[in-house]
């Protein structure tokens, strides 16, 4: 009898343990980036041309499971979407917006006015009225087409130098800094409900921060709508410091605008030329094929994974501390296979800057970010 009771008791324990374990697995499965941070900020990713065009099921399932915001990595840049004065090319942008709607995502437009990736026909327009009219036609046509569907626009991208002064560009040479106010005014009129953002890299730098503060105040003083500052966040394992990032979050938030981290990635590769930021013009051909510059051609070492995980943990800890000031955190790519950092500043390297590896598998860094919410 006692034996039978024992047996019954152990069977019961085993059944309970089985169900518990199953429950736990289910819980794990439902924990995703977008779910974990849903009360804090949006979790976005940038989509490449290939990803917008293909229906790869691995990508689609990860995309809808983990993210609730998207940005087009290249397909809405001026040279792509408005290649000639009277020609707009909307095929890919339309697909991109449809994809975002299908998955019920926050859809970002990137980017309306940028000196880089500008269509050749725009590069040498030297008459200020013609230039202003071209910007007007560009913004009106694109923003109105996606009115109510694209919810956030990177209106002006990278208009400042590292010291906070205005970057020399054709826009600035011809119109002075008024091109910025012009662009924001037009975007606000074309879709009054869209959130309008000034987007740039290295916005943690105190001098550049001061430049952004001036730029935002200048728009506000003219009564022009600006809703946010986009800190691109192309960072590395070593820098910038959490303190510098924090000081910028606070400075921008004090202006009454929201902060978004619009292009987050963390390079793990050597960068011995004191290169930071994301100026696409910089490139170092002489290092191509040099194994010293490409130390993880197959996979990142365990200690590299741990370092990356710790860096992401520190970064997301800061984001959570200031979640009331932050609208969105967008990674610049879905997985390591896609990242622009495989080809910048040296072509043909194997970088590992994101939370998902080349097989769409979550990395240690993914777990360290999620662990902050457990
Ligand atoms: O990731 C983008 C890469 O595929 C392009 O070749 C490059 C030039 O258009 O732009 C990259 O994205 C940039 C973004 O649009 C603006 N901030 C810097 C990003 C990295 O260069």
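-> sequence recovered:
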């Amino acid at each position: 009898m006692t034996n039978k009771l024992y047996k019954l008791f152990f069977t019961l324990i085993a059944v309970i343990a089985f169900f518990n374990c199953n429950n736990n697995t289910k819980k794990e499965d439902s924990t995703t980036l977008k779910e974990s941070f849903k009360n804090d900020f949006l979790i976005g990713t940038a989509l490449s041309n290939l990803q917008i065009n293909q229906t790869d099921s691995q990508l689609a399932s990860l995309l809808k499971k983990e993210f609730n915001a998207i940005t087009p990595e290249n397909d809405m840049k001026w040279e792509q979407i408005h290649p000639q004065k009277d020609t707009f090319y909307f095929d890919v942008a339309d697909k991109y917006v449809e994809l975002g709607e299908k998955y019920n995502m926050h859809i970002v437009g990137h980017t309306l006015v940028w000196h880089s990736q500008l269509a050749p026909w725009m590069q040498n327009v030297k008459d200020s009225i013609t230039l202003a009219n071209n910007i007007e036609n560009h913004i009106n046509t694109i923003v109105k087409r996606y009115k109510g569907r694209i919810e956030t626009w990177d209106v002006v991208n990278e208009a400042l130098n590292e010291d906070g002064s205005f970057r020399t560009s054709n826009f600035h040479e011809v119109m002075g800094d008024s091109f910025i106010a012009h662009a924001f005014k037009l975007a606000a009129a074309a879709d009054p409900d869209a959130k309008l953002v000034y987007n740039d890299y290295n916005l943690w730098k105190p001098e550049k921060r001061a430049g952004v503060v001036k730029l935002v105040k200048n728009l506000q003083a003219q009564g022009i709508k600006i809703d946010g500052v986009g800190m691109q966040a192309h960072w590395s394992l070593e820098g910038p410091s959490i303190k510098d990032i924090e000081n910028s979050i606070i400075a921008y938030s004090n202006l009454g605008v929201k902060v978004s981290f619009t292009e987050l990635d963390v390079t793990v590769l050597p960068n011995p030329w004191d290169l930071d930021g994301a100026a696409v013009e910089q490139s170092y051909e002489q290092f191509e094929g040099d194994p010293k510059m490409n130390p993880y051609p197959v996979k990142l070492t365990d200690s590299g994974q741990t370092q990356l995980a710790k860096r992401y943990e520190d970064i997301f800890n800061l984001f959570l501390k200031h979640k009331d000031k932050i609208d969105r955190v967008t990674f610049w790519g879905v997985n390591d296979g896609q990242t622009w950092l495989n080809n910048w500043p040296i072509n043909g390297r194997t970088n590992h800057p994101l939370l998902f590896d080349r097989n769409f598998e979550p990395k240690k860094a993914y777990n360290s970010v999620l662990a902050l919410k457990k």
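The two ends are 45 Å apart (CA to CA).
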